[in-house]
């Protein structure tokens, strides 16, 4: 469909709005609104326009990510990738905020390089520096 222009937002089910908000603020996201609606949902947005909706009705008894951390693999979104201009600066900022790098760096043949972190609910976030 040619009418699709971009991703509008990513929905992430989380256990704690407070913990998620603190984590994503470290990545530069700003709190917009919430909780709103019957689910309920809270909204954060990065100055670049990337929008995240936190769905606040998770089973907080689980400590693993069922798409990534268990042997039986299920269908579903496994991560979001945030494109960055300088991976070294991102790594430094993550370290300054006490955010552990859980994967990578991985370098593709075209020079693209990426690292991974986990949010408080073990959702995977990729920081992706494109190659040539």
UniProtKB/TrEMBL annotation:
Domain of life the protein comes from: Bacteria
Key words, A-Z: Metal-binding
Keyword Transferase included in the entry's annotation: no
Keyword match Amino-acid biosynthesis: no
CDD domains: VOC
Pfam families: Glyoxalase
Membrane-spanning parts: none
Any one Gene Ontology molecular-function term assigned to this protein's record: metal ion binding
Residue span, VOC domain: 6-130
InterPro entries for the chain: Glyas_Bleomycin-R_OHBP_Dase, Glyas_Fos-R_dOase_dom, Glyoxalase_1_CS, GlyoxalaseI/FosfomycinResist, VOC_core
PANTHER family assigned to the protein according to its UniProt record, in alphabetical order: GLYOXALASE DOMAIN-CONTAINING PROTEIN 5, GLYOXALASE FAMILY PROTEIN
Protein name in UniProt: Glyoxalase
């Amino acid at each position: 469909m040619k009418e699709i222009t971009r991703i509008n937002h990513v929905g992430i089910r989380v256990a704690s709005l407070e913990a998620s908000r603190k984590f994503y603020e470290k990545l530069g996201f700003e709190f917009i609104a919430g909780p709103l609606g019957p689910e309920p949902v809270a909204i954060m947005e990065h100055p670049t326009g990337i929008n995240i909706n936190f769905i606040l009705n998770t089973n907080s008894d689980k400590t693993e990510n069922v798409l990534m951390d268990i042997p039986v693999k299920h269908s579903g979104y496994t991560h979001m990738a945030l494109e960055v201009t300088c991976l070294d600066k991102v790594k430094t900022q993550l370290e300054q905020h006490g955010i552990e790098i859980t994967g990578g760096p991985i370098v593709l043949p075209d020079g693209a390089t990426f690292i991974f972190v986990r949010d408080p609910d073990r959702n995977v976030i990729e920081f992706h520096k494109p190659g040539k």
